[in-house]
Amino acid sequence: MIAALAVALSAIVFAVAALHAYWGFGGIWPASNAEQLAKTVVGTPNIKAMPSPTSCFVVAALLAALACWPLLQVGLLPEPWPSRWTLLASPMVGAIFVGRGIAGYKLGWRDYFPEQPFAKLDRLVYSPLCLLLGAGYFALFFGSMP
Predict the structure, then answer these.
(1) Among 88, 89, 77, which Cα is nearest to 146's?
(2) Who contacts 14 (Cβ-Cβ below 8 Å, separation ≥6)?
């Protein structure tokens, strides 16, 4: 059960990482043009273009690293450091996702990311996904305790 959770978490986060890499290469899905994509996935005021490819690749790399974490934790990937470090850092990974999920429901967040359709998608998709991922990382942590 714990291994299945780890694989599911990794698959979801890897998919999000791959999407960011795709945007870094100039992809525009799920929008019809770059400006609409920026308004859909970034949402800052009056945004007209996506962040730089470098920014997209950095986010993709960070997400890919977070996607590896569950696989490290359950032994599906070899750990390059003592396993207790992986276990101790796991709640921090969960907290990152939970924090991002909660932020999407705070009123101040809307001041920084007011563009539509980002604002609506953030409340309906992005923030709930982050909360779910955070809960999954915490469940994995507590389920892996010795």
Answers:
(1) 88
(2) 63, 64, 67
How many domains does the chain fold into? 1
Which of 57, 59, 76 lies closest to 68, judged by CA? 76
Structure tokens given for 36: 């609409």
Distance CA 54, CA 134 (A): 26
Tokens matching residue 30: 């799920």
Distance between alpha carbon 81 and the CA centroid of its chain, in Å? 24
* Mean pLDDT, the chain, integer: 95
pTM of the full predicted structure? 0.93
Handedness of CA 45, 128, 66, 17 (dihedral sign): negative
Give the residue numbers spanning the domain of 18.
2-143
Q: Which two tokens stand for residue 4?
A: 């299945």
Q: What is the dihedral of CA 34, 38, 40, 44, to 10 degrees?
A: -160
